[in-house]
What we know:
Blueprint: H1 2-40, E1 43-48, E2 51-57, H2 61-68, H3 71-101, H4 110-118, H5 125-135, H6 141-148, H7 162-190, H8 194-202, H9 207-218, H10 220-235, H11 239-244, H12 258-267, H13 271-314
Helix pairs in contact: 1-13, 2-13, 3-7, 3-10, 4-7, 5-7, 10-13, 12-13
Protein name: ABC transporter, permease protein
Subcellular location: Cell membrane
Membrane topology: Multi-pass membrane protein
Amino acid sequence: MNKKKQNHLSYAKWGYIFILPFFLAFFIFSLIPLVDTVRYSFYEYYRSGIKEIGPTFIGLENYAELLKSDMVGYAGNTLILWLIGFVPQIVIALLLANWFTDVRLKIRGKQFFKIIIYLPNLIMASAFAMLFFALFSTNGPINSILMSIGLTDTPIDFMGTTFGTRSLIGLMNFLMWFGNTTIMLMAAIMGISPDIFEAAELDGCGSFRRFFSITLPLIRPILAYTLITSIIGGLQMFDVPQILTNGQGNPDRTSMTLIMFLNSHLKSRNYGMAGALSVYLFIVSGILCFFVYRMTNGSDSTAKHRKHAKGGAKA
Protein backbone atom coordinates (compact mmCIF):
# COMPACT_ATOMS: atom_id res chain seq x y z
CA MET A 1 0.00 0.00 0.00
CA ASN A 2 2.80 2.43 0.92
CA LYS A 3 4.65 1.72 -2.35
CA LYS A 4 1.52 2.36 -4.38
CA LYS A 5 0.91 5.59 -2.49
CA GLN A 6 4.51 6.75 -3.08
CA ASN A 7 4.26 5.98 -6.81
CA HIS A 8 0.99 7.90 -7.03
CA LEU A 9 2.51 10.91 -5.29
CA SER A 10 5.59 10.86 -7.51
CA TYR A 11 3.46 10.76 -10.66
CA ALA A 12 1.37 13.68 -9.37
CA LYS A 13 4.55 15.64 -8.66
CA TRP A 14 5.85 15.18 -12.22
CA GLY A 15 2.44 16.14 -13.59
CA TYR A 16 2.56 19.44 -11.72
CA ILE A 17 6.11 20.04 -12.90
CA PHE A 18 5.11 19.53 -16.55
CA ILE A 19 2.14 21.92 -16.38
CA LEU A 20 4.08 24.53 -14.38
CA PRO A 21 5.55 26.29 -17.50
CA PHE A 22 2.06 26.89 -18.85
CA PHE A 23 0.85 28.48 -15.62
CA LEU A 24 3.99 30.61 -15.39
CA ALA A 25 3.54 31.84 -18.97
CA PHE A 26 -0.17 32.45 -18.37
CA PHE A 27 0.53 34.36 -15.16
CA ILE A 28 3.25 36.57 -16.71
CA PHE A 29 1.83 37.21 -20.18
CA SER A 30 -1.95 36.99 -19.61
CA LEU A 31 -3.08 37.36 -16.00
CA ILE A 32 -0.87 40.30 -15.01
CA PRO A 33 -1.70 42.33 -18.19
CA LEU A 34 -5.41 41.52 -17.68
CA VAL A 35 -5.37 42.79 -14.09
CA ASP A 36 -3.42 45.90 -15.15
CA THR A 37 -5.93 46.58 -17.94
CA VAL A 38 -8.85 46.46 -15.50
CA ARG A 39 -6.93 48.63 -13.02
CA TYR A 40 -6.03 51.30 -15.58
CA SER A 41 -9.65 51.49 -16.73
CA PHE A 42 -10.43 53.35 -13.47
CA TYR A 43 -7.61 55.84 -13.96
CA GLU A 44 -6.96 58.91 -16.07
CA TYR A 45 -3.74 57.90 -17.75
CA TYR A 46 -2.59 59.30 -21.09
CA ARG A 47 0.22 61.21 -22.75
CA SER A 48 0.01 64.67 -24.24
CA GLY A 49 3.14 65.21 -26.31
CA ILE A 50 6.04 64.35 -24.04
CA LYS A 51 4.00 65.03 -20.91
CA GLU A 52 2.46 62.08 -19.09
CA ILE A 53 -0.87 62.70 -17.35
CA GLY A 54 -1.72 60.40 -14.45
CA PRO A 55 -2.36 57.78 -13.44
CA THR A 56 -5.09 59.51 -11.43
CA PHE A 57 -8.02 57.55 -10.03
CA ILE A 58 -11.31 58.79 -11.58
CA GLY A 59 -13.64 55.83 -10.93
CA LEU A 60 -16.13 55.07 -13.71
CA GLU A 61 -15.58 58.26 -15.72
CA ASN A 62 -13.80 56.41 -18.55
CA TYR A 63 -16.77 54.03 -18.90
CA ALA A 64 -19.26 56.92 -18.94
CA GLU A 65 -17.16 58.83 -21.48
CA LEU A 66 -17.08 55.82 -23.81
CA LEU A 67 -20.88 55.55 -23.74
CA LYS A 68 -21.06 59.19 -24.87
CA SER A 69 -18.61 58.54 -27.72
CA ASP A 70 -19.14 56.72 -31.02
CA MET A 71 -18.53 53.34 -29.38
CA VAL A 72 -22.15 52.19 -29.81
CA GLY A 73 -22.02 53.03 -33.53
CA TYR A 74 -18.76 51.12 -33.92
CA ALA A 75 -20.35 48.17 -32.10
CA GLY A 76 -23.11 48.26 -34.71
CA ASN A 77 -20.49 48.28 -37.49
CA THR A 78 -18.79 45.27 -35.92
CA LEU A 79 -22.09 43.38 -35.67
CA ILE A 80 -22.99 44.08 -39.31
CA LEU A 81 -19.55 43.05 -40.60
CA TRP A 82 -19.70 39.86 -38.52
CA LEU A 83 -23.17 38.95 -39.82
CA ILE A 84 -22.16 39.56 -43.45
CA GLY A 85 -19.27 37.11 -43.05
CA PHE A 86 -20.76 34.55 -40.66
CA VAL A 87 -24.24 33.90 -42.08
CA PRO A 88 -23.05 32.69 -45.53
CA GLN A 89 -20.13 30.95 -43.82
CA ILE A 90 -22.29 28.71 -41.63
CA VAL A 91 -24.83 28.06 -44.41
CA ILE A 92 -22.19 27.03 -46.98
CA ALA A 93 -20.22 25.06 -44.38
CA LEU A 94 -23.31 23.08 -43.33
CA LEU A 95 -24.21 22.41 -46.95
CA LEU A 96 -20.71 21.22 -47.91
CA ALA A 97 -20.28 19.17 -44.72
CA ASN A 98 -23.59 17.42 -45.33
CA TRP A 99 -22.67 16.70 -48.96
CA PHE A 100 -19.18 15.39 -48.26
CA THR A 101 -20.36 13.08 -45.47
CA ASP A 102 -23.37 11.69 -47.35
CA VAL A 103 -22.39 8.14 -48.34
CA ARG A 104 -25.21 7.94 -50.88
CA LEU A 105 -23.74 10.72 -53.06
CA LYS A 106 -20.41 8.87 -53.56
CA ILE A 107 -18.42 12.07 -54.17
CA ARG A 108 -14.93 11.40 -55.51
CA GLY A 109 -11.83 13.34 -54.52
CA LYS A 110 -13.08 14.35 -51.09
CA GLN A 111 -9.55 14.82 -49.74
CA PHE A 112 -8.70 17.15 -52.62
CA PHE A 113 -11.78 19.29 -51.96
CA LYS A 114 -11.00 19.41 -48.24
CA ILE A 115 -7.53 20.77 -48.97
CA ILE A 116 -8.83 23.33 -51.47
CA ILE A 117 -11.51 24.77 -49.18
CA TYR A 118 -9.08 24.90 -46.23
CA LEU A 119 -6.24 26.62 -48.13
CA PRO A 120 -7.57 30.22 -47.68
CA ASN A 121 -7.39 29.71 -43.92
CA LEU A 122 -3.61 29.35 -44.23
CA ILE A 123 -3.20 32.79 -45.82
CA MET A 124 -2.50 35.64 -43.41
CA ALA A 125 -5.38 38.08 -43.06
CA SER A 126 -3.07 41.00 -43.85
CA ALA A 127 -2.01 39.36 -47.13
CA PHE A 128 -5.65 38.60 -47.94
CA ALA A 129 -6.61 42.23 -47.34
CA MET A 130 -3.77 43.52 -49.51
CA LEU A 131 -4.81 41.12 -52.27
CA PHE A 132 -8.41 42.34 -52.22
CA PHE A 133 -7.25 45.95 -52.04
CA ALA A 134 -5.27 45.42 -55.25
CA LEU A 135 -8.02 43.42 -56.99
CA PHE A 136 -10.90 45.80 -56.27
CA SER A 137 -9.13 49.17 -56.55
CA THR A 138 -10.28 51.56 -59.27
CA ASN A 139 -7.25 50.59 -61.36
CA GLY A 140 -7.38 46.91 -60.41
CA PRO A 141 -8.04 43.84 -62.56
CA ILE A 142 -11.69 43.49 -61.50
CA ASN A 143 -12.56 46.92 -62.89
CA SER A 144 -10.49 46.21 -66.02
CA ILE A 145 -12.45 42.99 -66.65
CA LEU A 146 -15.82 44.68 -66.07
CA MET A 147 -14.93 47.52 -68.45
CA SER A 148 -13.52 45.21 -71.11
CA ILE A 149 -16.70 43.11 -71.29
CA GLY A 150 -18.86 46.23 -71.37
CA LEU A 151 -20.63 45.93 -68.01
CA THR A 152 -19.50 49.42 -67.01
CA ASP A 153 -18.00 52.45 -68.75
CA THR A 154 -16.23 53.91 -65.73
CA PRO A 155 -14.30 52.21 -62.92
CA ILE A 156 -16.41 51.23 -59.91
CA ASP A 157 -15.16 52.58 -56.60
CA PHE A 158 -15.86 49.47 -54.54
CA MET A 159 -14.23 50.91 -51.43
CA GLY A 160 -15.86 54.30 -51.84
CA THR A 161 -19.31 53.11 -50.72
CA THR A 162 -20.51 51.67 -47.44
CA PHE A 163 -22.11 48.65 -49.13
CA GLY A 164 -18.99 47.89 -51.20
CA THR A 165 -16.52 48.13 -48.32
CA ARG A 166 -18.63 46.08 -45.93
CA SER A 167 -19.29 43.47 -48.62
CA LEU A 168 -15.57 43.08 -49.33
CA ILE A 169 -14.76 42.70 -45.62
CA GLY A 170 -17.56 40.15 -45.19
CA LEU A 171 -16.43 38.26 -48.30
CA MET A 172 -12.85 38.07 -47.02
CA ASN A 173 -13.95 36.79 -43.60
CA PHE A 174 -16.18 34.23 -45.31
CA LEU A 175 -13.40 32.96 -47.61
CA MET A 176 -10.86 32.75 -44.80
CA TRP A 177 -12.99 30.80 -42.34
CA PHE A 178 -15.64 28.73 -44.13
CA GLY A 179 -13.12 25.94 -44.85
CA ASN A 180 -12.19 25.58 -41.19
CA THR A 181 -15.88 25.54 -40.22
CA THR A 182 -16.64 22.94 -42.90
CA ILE A 183 -13.91 20.59 -41.62
CA MET A 184 -15.19 20.86 -38.04
CA LEU A 185 -18.80 20.21 -39.06
CA MET A 186 -17.72 17.26 -41.21
CA ALA A 187 -15.97 15.74 -38.20
CA ALA A 188 -19.12 16.25 -36.12
CA ILE A 189 -21.40 14.63 -38.72
CA MET A 190 -19.00 11.70 -39.19
CA GLY A 191 -19.23 11.12 -35.43
CA ILE A 192 -22.94 10.27 -35.77
CA SER A 193 -23.62 6.54 -35.88
CA PRO A 194 -24.47 5.37 -39.44
CA ASP A 195 -27.16 3.13 -37.95
CA ILE A 196 -29.23 6.22 -37.18
CA PHE A 197 -29.17 7.34 -40.80
CA GLU A 198 -29.92 3.82 -42.03
CA ALA A 199 -32.91 3.54 -39.69
CA ALA A 200 -34.18 6.95 -40.87
CA GLU A 201 -33.82 5.89 -44.51
CA LEU A 202 -35.75 2.68 -43.86
CA ASP A 203 -38.54 4.74 -42.29
CA GLY A 204 -38.75 6.81 -45.48
CA CYS A 205 -37.06 9.91 -44.09
CA GLY A 206 -36.11 12.35 -46.87
CA SER A 207 -32.88 14.32 -47.15
CA PHE A 208 -34.30 17.56 -45.76
CA ARG A 209 -36.07 15.83 -42.89
CA ARG A 210 -32.96 13.82 -42.07
CA PHE A 211 -30.82 16.96 -42.04
CA PHE A 212 -33.11 19.06 -39.83
CA SER A 213 -34.37 16.27 -37.55
CA ILE A 214 -31.23 14.16 -37.11
CA THR A 215 -28.05 15.89 -38.27
CA LEU A 216 -28.59 19.38 -36.85
CA PRO A 217 -29.73 18.28 -33.35
CA LEU A 218 -26.85 15.80 -33.00
CA ILE A 219 -24.11 18.28 -34.03
CA ARG A 220 -25.48 21.06 -31.84
CA PRO A 221 -22.46 21.11 -29.47
CA ILE A 222 -20.10 21.73 -32.41
CA LEU A 223 -22.47 24.38 -33.76
CA ALA A 224 -22.40 26.09 -30.36
CA TYR A 225 -18.60 25.99 -30.34
CA THR A 226 -18.49 27.41 -33.87
CA LEU A 227 -20.88 30.21 -33.02
CA ILE A 228 -19.07 31.15 -29.79
CA THR A 229 -15.63 31.22 -31.41
CA SER A 230 -17.06 33.19 -34.34
CA ILE A 231 -18.60 35.78 -31.98
CA ILE A 232 -15.29 36.21 -30.18
CA GLY A 233 -13.46 36.47 -33.51
CA GLY A 234 -16.04 38.97 -34.77
CA LEU A 235 -15.59 41.21 -31.73
CA GLN A 236 -11.83 41.04 -32.30
CA MET A 237 -12.12 41.90 -36.01
CA PHE A 238 -9.23 44.20 -36.80
CA ASP A 239 -6.66 43.30 -39.44
CA VAL A 240 -8.91 43.02 -42.51
CA PRO A 241 -10.81 46.35 -42.13
CA GLN A 242 -7.69 48.05 -40.78
CA ILE A 243 -5.63 47.29 -43.89
CA LEU A 244 -8.47 47.62 -46.40
CA THR A 245 -9.45 51.10 -45.14
CA ASN A 246 -5.96 52.21 -44.09
CA GLY A 247 -7.09 52.35 -40.46
CA GLN A 248 -9.71 55.04 -41.13
CA GLY A 249 -12.83 52.89 -41.28
CA ASN A 250 -13.93 54.65 -44.46
CA PRO A 251 -16.32 55.61 -45.88
CA ASP A 252 -17.51 57.86 -43.04
CA ARG A 253 -16.17 55.39 -40.46
CA THR A 254 -18.89 52.87 -41.35
CA SER A 255 -16.35 50.04 -41.30
CA MET A 256 -14.67 51.10 -38.06
CA THR A 257 -14.76 48.18 -35.61
CA LEU A 258 -14.43 48.16 -31.83
CA ILE A 259 -10.86 46.85 -31.93
CA MET A 260 -9.91 49.55 -34.44
CA PHE A 261 -11.41 52.08 -32.01
CA LEU A 262 -9.38 50.48 -29.22
CA ASN A 263 -6.25 50.65 -31.35
CA SER A 264 -6.78 54.39 -31.91
CA HIS A 265 -6.74 54.91 -28.12
CA LEU A 266 -3.58 52.85 -27.80
CA LYS A 267 -1.89 54.85 -30.58
CA SER A 268 -2.77 58.08 -28.76
CA ARG A 269 -1.53 56.40 -25.55
CA ASN A 270 -4.80 56.91 -23.73
CA TYR A 271 -4.40 53.81 -21.59
CA GLY A 272 -7.35 54.55 -19.30
CA MET A 273 -9.90 54.69 -22.13
CA ALA A 274 -8.32 51.69 -23.83
CA GLY A 275 -8.59 49.70 -20.59
CA ALA A 276 -12.26 50.65 -20.15
CA LEU A 277 -13.05 49.66 -23.74
CA SER A 278 -11.28 46.32 -23.20
CA VAL A 279 -13.43 45.65 -20.14
CA TYR A 280 -16.56 46.48 -22.17
CA LEU A 281 -15.47 43.99 -24.84
CA PHE A 282 -14.83 41.32 -22.21
CA ILE A 283 -18.28 41.81 -20.66
CA VAL A 284 -20.08 41.79 -24.03
CA SER A 285 -18.19 38.64 -25.10
CA GLY A 286 -19.14 36.88 -21.88
CA ILE A 287 -22.83 37.84 -22.15
CA LEU A 288 -23.12 36.82 -25.80
CA CYS A 289 -21.35 33.49 -25.22
CA PHE A 290 -23.61 32.78 -22.23
CA PHE A 291 -26.76 33.39 -24.29
CA VAL A 292 -25.47 31.23 -27.14
CA TYR A 293 -24.67 28.41 -24.73
CA ARG A 294 -28.10 28.64 -23.12
CA MET A 295 -29.85 28.73 -26.50
CA THR A 296 -28.02 25.67 -27.82
CA ASN A 297 -28.24 23.59 -24.63
CA GLY A 298 -31.49 24.76 -23.05
CA SER A 299 -33.74 22.32 -24.92
CA ASP A 300 -31.62 19.36 -23.80
CA SER A 301 -32.06 20.25 -20.16
CA THR A 302 -35.78 20.83 -20.75
CA ALA A 303 -36.11 17.38 -22.32
CA LYS A 304 -34.31 15.81 -19.37
CA HIS A 305 -36.64 17.51 -16.92
CA ARG A 306 -39.64 16.25 -18.87
CA LYS A 307 -38.29 12.68 -18.81
CA HIS A 308 -37.73 12.89 -15.06
CA ALA A 309 -41.21 14.29 -14.59
CA LYS A 310 -42.78 11.46 -16.61
CA GLY A 311 -40.77 8.90 -14.69
CA GLY A 312 -41.94 10.38 -11.41
CA ALA A 313 -45.57 10.42 -12.55
CA LYS A 314 -45.39 6.74 -13.56
CA ALA A 315 -43.88 5.83 -10.22
